[in-house]
Amino acid sequence: MNMAGDSIREKELRKARNYCSRLLSLCPRTEHEIKARLESRGFRKVIQNDILDLLKKDGLVDDLRFARGWIDSRIRSKPRGVKLLRIELQKKGVGDDVIDRVLHEKAAELDEKAVLREMVKKKIKEVESGPQKNIKGRLFQYVVQKGFDAETAENVINEIMGG
Hints:
Elements: H1 3-26, H2 31-40, H3 45-57, H4 63-77, H5 82-91, H6 96-105, H7 112-129, H8 135-145, H9 150-161
């Protein structure tokens, strides 16, 4: 390649790197998200791949670390069932092998019954202040929408409310 071609490539790489730096300064991203953003900005495939390789080498993009952080965040602030966590990570482009590994690592923290008990205890006050009709059904619908297994949800709600 001639020198003009090299400088155009270097310029495009620098532009892509700067764009990715801005993206990553806002929040962590998966490989899939970075690639999609670069593609939407019109960067060529070769540039996308080169930048992803550099970002991975520098430790700035790491799907395993991303998945761990995502699940830790959900455990702390927005409890979800394992099923919904898996779906969220899949939507972010995290591979099933990485998801399986992280869910296995975090199994003790993802004790669905314990998380569900806390959710139901918090939500029950809100649900009881509304119409008294079908409180168990409304609680059940709420926790199932959060990705918890239906049988586990029913058992925990019955345990807390009696029945």
